[in-house]
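Practice problem: predict the structure.
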Amino acid sequence: MTGPVEPAVLAARAADAKKGEDVVVLDVGEVLGIVGTFVIASASNARLVRAIVEEVETWLREQLGIKPRSVEGLSDASWVLLDFGDLVVHVFLTETREYYDLERLWADVPQIAWAEAPSA
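Answer:
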């Protein structure tokens, strides 16, 4: 994996490691042009949203040496957006994610597999 896929997969795994729910990685590059991938995750409460955001930032900084260009929405934590340039990570409260339904809006773009294959 190279380019935006590697950070996106790492971000998805970080969100999953902190109990992010329904984690998906969308390849939006062909449609959007200014961003290559979206990672979308949700959590049941604001405290967990913040924990997921912190975990994603930590993993990407420690493993790839990258930091977000900006972080939006952290104060109320119903929808936090981390902008890494070619990667945008969205971490939602569950009800906020259901309301905005980004997966429906981006239903025509491919999903990228991010989960590690189970050991044999």
